[in-house]
Amino acid sequence: MSYETNRFVVEHKKTPSKAEAKTRINNFGEIYADFKPGQADKQASRCAQCGIPFCQSGCPLQNNIPDWLRMTAEGRYEEAYRLSSATSALPEICGRICPQDRLCEGSCVLEQSGWENVTIGAVERHLGDLAFENGWIEPIVPVQERDQSVGIIGAGPAGIAAADRLRTLGYKVTIYDRYDRAGGLLTYGIPSFKLEKDVVARRTDRLAASGVEFVLNCDIGEDVTFEELREKHDAILVATGVYKTRRLTVPGCGSTGVVVALDYLTMANKEGFGYNVEEAAEAHLNAKGKHVVVIGGGDTAMDCVRTATRQGAKSVTCVYRRDRANMPGSDREVTNAEEEGVSFEWLSAPKAVLGDADHATGLRIQRMRLTTPDAQGRQGIEDIPGAESDLPADLVIEALGFEPENIPVMFNQPGLEVTKWGTIKVQAGEFQTFVPGVFAAGDIVRGASLVVWAVREGQDAAADIHHYIQSNVSVSLEAAQ
């Protein structure tokens, strides 16, 4: 049965079912189910088909959301999927992990007017899963095969998105990555309860089936030089992401009981893959039986606290220096964490790690308060004199954000200019760096950001690379004549 749109008055917002907290903390499976047949149609039919679709402008990819919602409501699922994938190389992944409450759904006119938003992310995920189940997604067969090749450094979302678009245009594409599996943080950073790994693998498998070559366990600068890649390919895209973790600087922070979020999450994902992990390393980076404190307020911090509950921690606490209203992470993820038994210490900052060099025993925190808003309306924070307290902590996880590695040094490429934040500098309005034929996109240009922005920039960089190569081809043909 198909439904017309504008049914938000008679159809109430309904999200896919979510596993009960006491059940879901016993495994790493995705906590949200998919829509059952007909449910996505009903939810899509709530769309008001606004003349100015703020959901679309709220999406970094500028997805044609009202159009594919209308098609879904009409039961035209394959058309709806093809329209969603026209602007996104990873729609079913973004449907799972985007903070829709801060993007498309938060911008929905129905949400702003008190009718509750359309469940855009869940419909997007549903369409992508349907596409794989029904064989609508096949290996890429370019209309025209080209002689030129592109090397992509980094198999994360920016690299995958760029490879998808470049292969569609007919280029030979090779992706180089330091890890043993493609996917970047989609594979080793994001826990399976948010994104099961077969969902990532089927996308990278499709690229491989389309002729994209993956060179894994490859460190640029060690296993192969950057100059060798430039000689081999007509263009290079640097899409490494940002992996350097910001560290604590308080007394005791050098204790072995203090670990960085990415090491912790990577170990948990390796265990999920069934790897034989060194016993000492596994014990060091596992929360089982420990009092765990995670420092930070973003989605990575939420990934850590929710992983710790599943590993059987005695207690899990998140410490963040501002209040919940000013937290940078998704409110949905905070709610999920609270349901799973995580405690939050708002307006608190780490002051010292207690214990010794070999073992942490606690974290001393300084209570904070918000200050008067500045001219832009942002409140600062300041210490409350004498307001300190201690939390038990056998494992302290730093989730303070990520910074770029020193790419020019790693790649022995001093011509790659960087900003004052260490991100790669690109030319105004495009993705080409100041080294001819070398492009950059994703977090290594933006700084640590959302997966959806990495997808957007990977796709846009692919368009820039295509223009660059074809311009050079035209110049070569003119010179030959």
Automatic annotation (TrEMBL):
Keywords: 4Fe-4S, Iron, Iron-sulfur, Metal-binding, Oxidoreductase
FAD/NAD(P)-binding domain residues: 150-458
UniProt signal peptide: none
Gene3D superfamilies the record matches: Alpha-helical ferredoxin (1.10.1060.10), FAD/NAD(P)-binding domain (3.50.50.60), NAD(P)-binding Rossmann-like Domain (3.40.50.720)
Organism domain of life: Bacteria
Domain Dihydroprymidine dehydrogenase: 24-135
Record InterPro entries: DPD_II, FAD/NAD-bd_sf, FAD/NAD-binding_dom, GltD-like, Helical_ferredxn
Stored NCBIfam families: gltD_gamma_fam (TIGR01318)
Stated name of the protein: NAD(P)-dependent oxidoreductase
